[in-house]
What we know:
Blueprint: H1 28-34, E1 41-42, E2 49-50, E3 58-62, H2 63-69, H3 74-78, E4 84-87, E5 96-99, E6 102-103, E7 107-111, E8 114-115, E9 133-140, H4 144-147, E10 154-160, H5 163-167, E11 172-181, E12 186-196, E13 200-211, E14 214-215, E15 221-222, E16 227-241, E17 244-260, E18 276-292, E19 301-316, E20 322-342, E21 345-364, E22 367-368, E23 375-390, E24 394-409, E25 415-431, E26 434-445, H6 449-453, E27 457-459, E28 462-464, E29 473-487, E30 495-516, E31 530-552, E32 555-568, E33 582-591, E34 596-605, E35 621-630, E36 639-646, E37 666-674
Parallel strand pairs: 7-10, 28-31
Antiparallel strand pairs: 1-2, 3-9, 4-5, 5-6, 7-8, 9-10, 11-12, 11-37, 12-13, 13-16, 14-15, 16-17, 17-18, 18-19, 19-20, 20-21, 21-22, 21-23, 23-24, 24-25, 25-26, 26-29, 27-28, 29-30, 30-31, 31-32, 32-33, 33-34, 34-35, 35-36, 36-37
Amino acid sequence: xxxxxHAIPFIAASLTLALPAQADTRSDHEQVxxxxxxxxxxxxxRVPTALDQLGAPIAVRDRATLDRDQAANLxxxxxxxxxxxxxxxxxxxxxxxxxRGLGGERVVIRVDGxxxxxxxxxxxxxxxxxxxxxxxxxxxxxxxxxxxxxxxxGVVNFRTxxxxxxxxxxxxxxxxxxxxxxxxxxxLLSAIVAGQGERGSWLGSVLQRDQSDLKxxxxxxxxxxxxxxxxxxxxxxxxxxPDHRLTLSLQGFRDDHEIPSNATxxxxxxxxxxxxxxxxxxxxxxxxxxxxTPDNDWVDLDATVYGNQVELEETRVDTDxxxxxxxxxxxxxxxxxxxxxxxxxxxQLLVGLEHYRDRQQGRRDGDRRPQYPDARQEITGVxxxxxxxxxxRLEISPGLRYDRxxxxxxxxSSITESEWxxxxxxxxxxxxxxxxxxxxxxxxxxxxxxxxYVGGVHFGNNFFEPNPxxxxxxxxxxxxxxxxxxxxxxxxxxxxxxxxxxxxxDVEDFIDQRVxxxxxxxxxxxxxxxxxxxxxxxxxxxxxxLEFQYLHPDYFVAVNASRIRGDNRTDGEPLSGVxxxxxxxxxxxxxxxxxxxxxxxxxxxxxxxRVTDGGETTDGYTLxxxxxxxxxxxxxxxLQLDFGIDNVTDKTYRPHLASINDxxxxxxxxxxxxx
Length: 675
């Protein structure tokens, strides 16, 4: 069960592979201490808390597993989490997270506490190379009581690398990494340098990742999947006093490539990709975080000020038409945690304020582009959550948030509305290690600026019409879960984490794009009509998730499974965009005193036939992956070699949330040297 904050260690550590190489000359005491399994701390509930003390459904991937899998894009990061998928693949800048069947702007994305609000047509939403990440956390299920507009499916929190985690006890160090992947002949070069002292720390990282077009299992080229990525991170931390911590983070990403304007188009045959553009994607993020943690129970302040800029420049390859798409976001996120006691009841009271402004601009050959209208929004939210601990077994957490949002566009009327979001969760300790979790949570998504104000030509003679009368989408989720967390279960040094969840998420006033066609009475059949956004349907998503992890200093096993059923309650049709049922089995062993890790993964996705009328079904498939990590003792643990083979059997397959095939067999190798 949860503990007081001073008893919770703040350690960023590995889910599965956190075992350093062991030297035979160490004493027994030293060896046992070095094999202690790590504590995983997450921030997705806005208060840093050990994962095994939370009832909320949160999945985590850390730096060690990202290195082991040589993660190169968003799908490599998220697809192996239960209830989490990606859409738009395998084109890097088209990938978007999907949580429990909800994606796009129905998922909140944050990088180091900064919201990533970019959304435009069939383009992606987050532009960040996985090599810069320290940890990824996914909170599954509606969470507007903590994160406001957009959290219908859940929240993805990305945390970039920092000097303390990278260096450990060292004062200075660095890492040079080179990698190669057979698919697309991808090459990776990266350098990290970091230092730390009594009053602060710093870290700098830069990388270059290049690849040509990928191929599927049949050997057919998956067109327009090449990338030329440059990315970097600069982060510094200053500790002017024992209770103060100031962190500045600057992160940038650029990708130059050719891609269909509709990046999810198949593009597998000549002319099938539609309009093709030469695109440059630029993303920049700046965050300044201040933490004040005096030794009292009233103040634990965490404040972040941030700015994000996403800029896409596209030149149509056949006509030289030039489009610019820009979104700039500035915001502040402020929370304070207090610890109170009323009688025999303990309270962890979280109070917060969030405010951010978005300004988007679209240009075509220098003129305004109404398909991405010049528009602005300003959102302010205040929230409170009380984590109530009653005795040794029961925890109840009510939460409430109020959001007020204002939206306007050039030559359009402004819109001002507000929403309340509520939650009530409870965790009961059935027995040592066993917790029963139940909860109700709400979420909403305010209509986007493009939903409200879009205009101009859609295609042919079809025109976009703005709809300023759109209502926010709303979700109401009921969930029940049973979890187990234990150490020394079957052997002295093992650890077990397991969770079974069932949920029902009812979403009202889904915003959908409607296309109405008109054909002329005489002459050639030129399409006409209008395209607009409308609140058209209510939906219900039901699902079950299973997570199991067994960790031991000598081996590990993990099982993840997810099943989702989505229905349009307005017309009785299945809900589009729901992924197939999936099961993942992963395991490995640590040998040579922890210097060598060998393992593999089996992933099964079942066929998906529950589609809308006229929708496309997908076949089931089974994938096999292998991986190996070596840290030879002769190199003083400074050299690390990662080797892997994805899709060993060279299977040709298409995930249900993609319109094109995923890659076939991919042989990967990565070498890193610490200094």
